Amino acid sequence: MELSTARPPRVVVFDYGFGNIRSAERALARAGAEVEITRDYEAAMNADGLLVPGVGAFAACMKGLTAARGDWIIDRRLSGGRPVLGICVGMQILFSRGVEHGEECAGLDEWPGTVGPLKAEVVPHMGWNTVEAPAGSRLFAGLDPGTRYYFVHSYAVHDWTLETGNPAIRAPLVSWATHGERFVAAVENGALWATQFHPEKSGDAGAQLLTNWIETL
Hints:
alpha/beta; Rossmann fold
């Protein structure tokens, strides 16, 4: 029997100063990836997958991302169909804009939508919650509907408006969660996937989810 010589997928965790990069690195390695933490342009462009973390304020993350040319890297990767995964604020900045404390900041505009305050009795939404995943989701493959994932956020996207308008083009798959109100918990849209929750902090469920993404690389 011949031993497989296939290398594991290479994933870059983009280091632009915001996000749980070490926990993301460990979780991706556990899921079977070869992981590098860097903001190097060539490494980020040539990796099989790019993970964009994010913790903190929308505007601050956008400022750090653009300073590191992350906006350009994400755009170029997606133009070539190269996979990108955004996590937490790394998901939020993919939308058109964020509004925090009455101040508006432009996002990457990969998807239309506004990131706004989460309206609930207890904010931030911190802890474990279930997700409503649509049929056919590859991100949540093998995970039960009652599985819980770890969230830490005070802002969210409350409406999804993007439609392809072309039945030949697969519409994005949008997953939802509820904390006070319903909000977007994850999106699968071609090469661009994202989660509002933290898979790297979600135990075995998060490991399975990251494995599902890595298997697409």
